[in-house]
Amino acid sequence: MTRRMHRRSFGLIMLLLAIVAVAPGVSIVAGLLLMVFPAFQMILGQNMPVFPRRIAARPIPTMHLAALVLRAVPVLRSLEKLIHPRWPTPLDATKRAVGAVVVLLNITLLFTPVPLSNIVPALVIALISLAYLEEDGILLSIAMLASIVVLAIELVVVWETVLGGKRLFDLWS
After folding, report:
1. Burial class (CB in 10 A: 0-12, 13-18, 19+), 57
2. What is the pLDDT of residue 144?
3. What is the CA radius of gyration of the chain?
4. For residues 94-105, average pLDDT
5. Quick one: what percent of the chain has pLDDT higher than 70?
6. 103, 35 in Cβ contact below 8 A?
C-alpha cells in the first residue's frame, strides 16, 4: 500500500498511528511505532516509510482497526471539507521539519507523567498528518504552531513535576 502512495504514505501512516495513540493503554506502542518508523525516516529524508519484514508481514487485527476507523470516518469527512491543498510548501524541507516535530511530540506522549496526557499530543500529530497528507500549508502552519504550544505546556508540566518532587524530597530530608 505504501509503495502506491509514495510521499503521501508518511501522512497516512502518521494519521493512523496518531488516532491509535489517542487511546490510553496502546498509546505507548503507537507512539513508539510513530517515532521509530515514519518520524525518524522523514528526518532522514527517505521517500516512503520502510518497515522491517517482521512488522510489515504481520497481520493487523482488523476487527479493532475497523471499529476505530468507523469512529474516525465521520470526523475525517467533516474535516475534509476544511482541508484541501493550498499554500504549497517544499515537500523535502517540510518532511524533515514534520518528522522532527512528531518526534518531539512523541517524546511528550511517551514520557509525560500525567494521566491522559497522551491525548493532546496525539491529536496534534493527527492534525499535522492530515495537513501533510492533504498538502495544506496553511493547516500545517497552524498545526506546527499548536505543536509549539503543546510542547511548551508539556515542558512546564514536566518542570513543575520535577520541582514538586524536589520540594517533597526537601521536606522529607
Report:
1. exposed
2. 94
3. 17
4. 88
5. 84
6. yes
106-150 pLDDT, tens digit per residue, is 888 887 767 788 889 999 999 999 888 888 889 999 999 999 999
pTM of the model: 0.79
d(CA 143, CA 56): 29
Other C-beta atoms closer than 10 Å to the C-beta of 28 total: 14
pLDDT (mean) for 9-37: 82
C-alpha cell at 17: 498511528
Q: Can you state the percent helix, strand and coil of the chain, rounding each to 5?
A: 75, 0, 20
Report phi then psi at 54, rounded to 5: -60, -40
**86 pairs with which residues across the strands?**
136
Residue pointed to by grid coordinates 509514495? 6
- Alpha carbon of residue 160 to chain centroid: 25
The CB-side HSE value for 22 (13 A sphere, CA atoms) comes to 15
